[in-house]
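#structure-requests
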Amino acid sequence: MTCLAGCCNKFDMQTEVLEFKDPAVGKALANILDSANLEEFNDADALYIKCLETPDTAWVESEDPNRPYDFVCNLKLETYHGEHGIPMDSVYGACKLGDKWCYATSPATVDRLFNKTGRTQQNTLWISKEECQCAENEIELNIDSENKITYRFFKLEIVD
């Protein structure tokens, strides 16, 4: 995003470049974003990735309304469109996921998924003052000990 109307602030940051320990994880995540028809993720300026130290369990409706199931989530991908969400000065490195920078939001995420490269890169994001927090979305995923990923899409709901 480049902002021509003055509605945005430019945010430059030096970021440690990360690489997936298992390249198949990066490919699987990119495939999910490409194939899941998630336009809001394609429109995002960047993404966040976070391994959850305590997995969440979500109740999910199935195609059979009498058979809902629990989905255990231990990994999240979130969109970044503006000035909401995780402060960019508290990220622990970033990788490219497709054509977007994907920022790791905890040391546990880096330990679980990434190798540090020792390289840094200057990244520029435009922070929109006009974006609403309701524009942000997340994908809740499960990654097992063999790096198999399953997912279920949930729209981030904001509660005041």
